[in-house]
Amino acid sequence: MFKYDNGFVVNERGQVMDVSGNKDAENQNIHMWKKHGGKNQQWDIVYVEDMKAEPVKGELSPDFGLYVERPFHIVSEMPSHRYLDIISNNLVVKTPNGFDTQIFWFDQKTRTIKS
Fold first, then answer.
1. DSSP sequence for 20-48
2. Which CATH architecture has domain 2-114?
3. What is the pTM of this model?
């Protein structure tokens, strides 16, 4: 279970998503780490499309800080602003490339971020 909280992607143990080694590099691995507040742990959520009027899906989940089933990118706050990506079941940061592996969504039923 993950939630987005003031720029951090946090798991149920309070650990945050962290760019390994604080390296702003292509294909740098992501892991969960104790929060220290560095730029390598800070993320922006950028939604793929504008929200449609009067949606059923796409309503904000106040408990998790994410819109339900609305596609988004997770963008690093490090200087290169790389996107979270999945390569061979590993989370990494990569330059935006338009692939579906860089698109995520929040599933209200399981309370998880999915790709």
1. GGG---TTEEEEEE-----GGG-EEEEES
2. Trefoil (2.80)
3. 0.85
Nearest to 83 by CA among 1, 19, 5, 7: 19
Q: How many CB atoms lie within 10 A of CB 27?
A: 12
Q: Are 37 and 43 in contact (CB under 8 A)?
A: no
Tokens of 112: 């998880």
Three-class DSSP category at 60 = strand
The domains of the chain are located at: 2-114
pLDDT in tens, 8-22: 999 999 999 999 999
CA-based nearest residue to 10, from 34, 28, 30: 34
